[in-house]
């Protein structure tokens, strides 16, 4: 078996008495696209933050290319981050920076690249997500939501990462723009040969971008399989989610 690029082993995380992750086991092979489904509040973002090292698990391990990075800090943590791209929910661009400064953020700050070189790389990367150089000097507030997602995608791919996390990449977009963003994500992830982990509750996105789908429920991965088998999972939780039914084993988050 190929060595997974990312592995979560028995990851647990609680906030006070709220046990959010209760032993998450999941792995992602290099170049593979995994989508993690889960209801609102099921802990998808918490799982992602633990995987990225933005939160430390209470128990369990995070392995990156087979190495235990659970408690890495400083330089070691930075070395892992340099290999990882991230597209946060809502794009999360810095309002006070221009589009190109957002895209080149890592190059300017972590890699201390010369501004003129970084700008050139940012403009090249913007082209990959079909944005012309005319947007480079605009501020995020001056461009549409769909364009902001493309800028966020450019920022996630500029360092040519081996692994990219996508947190609800199509939230807040109309279905047509969402589909175009999914197309771009697929195209760019394939071009890099990167692995992708996407968390979403949008089934249309999941079907489109996933090689494999996993379902997070009550703090554990309760089902995992090829994207093509999602309609015939034989799992009541997955079925309810795929068909968007309010009644079933998963309670609506209201
Ligand atoms: N920093 C934190 N401190 C305390 N509780 C937290 C923190 N982060 C998340 N939680 C709790 O963890 C639970 C899971 O939240 P999380 O954001 O991971 O859900 P999610 O599956 O991503 O939901 P959604 O799909 O709605 O974004 C929630 O009950 C939330 O209140």
From TrEMBL:
**All residue ranges annotated as the ABC transporter domain in the record:** 6-243
**What protein is this chain from?**
ABC transporter ATP-binding protein
Q: Name one GO molecular function term.
A: ATP binding
**SMART domains, alphabetically?**
AAA
The record's keywords, sorted A to Z, are: ATP-binding, Nucleotide-binding, Transport
- A single Pfam family it belongs to is ABC_tran
Q: Which InterPro entries match?
A: AAA+_ATPase, ABC_transporter-like_ATP-bd, ABC_transporter-like_CS, P-loop_NTPase
Question: What is the top-level taxon of the source organism?
Answer: Bacteria
């Amino acid at each position: 078996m190929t060595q997974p690029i990312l592995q979560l082993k028995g990851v647990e995380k609680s906030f006070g008495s709220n046990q959010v992750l209760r032993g998450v086991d999941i792995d992602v092979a290099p170049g593979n696209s995994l989508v993690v489904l889960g209801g609102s509040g099921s802990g998808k973002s918490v799982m992602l933050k633990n995987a990225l090292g933005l939160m430390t698990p209470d128990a369990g391990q995070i392995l990156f290319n087979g190495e235990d990075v659970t408690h890495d800090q400083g330089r070691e943590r930075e070395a892992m981050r340099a290999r990882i791209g991230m597209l946060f929910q809502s794009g999360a661009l810095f309002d006070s920076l221009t589009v190109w400064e957002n895209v080149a953020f890592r190059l300017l700050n972590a890699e201390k690249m010369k501004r003129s070189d970084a700008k050139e790389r940012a403009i090249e990367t913007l082209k990959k997500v079909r944005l012309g150089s005319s947007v480079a000097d605009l501020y995020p507030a001056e461009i549409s939501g769909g364009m902001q997602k493309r800028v966020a995608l450019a920022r996630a791919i500029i360092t040519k990462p081996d692994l990219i996390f996508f947190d609800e990449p199509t939230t807040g977009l109309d279905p047509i723009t969402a589909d175009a963003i999914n197309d771009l994500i697929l195209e760019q992830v394939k071009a890099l040969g990167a692995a992708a982990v996407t968390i979403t509750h949008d089934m249309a996105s999941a079907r489109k971008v996933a090689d494999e789908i996993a379902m997070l429920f009550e703090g554990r991965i309760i089902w995992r399989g090829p994207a093509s088998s999602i309609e015939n999972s034989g799992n009541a939780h997955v079925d309810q989610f795929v068909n968007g039914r309010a009644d079933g084993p998963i309670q609506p988050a209201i």
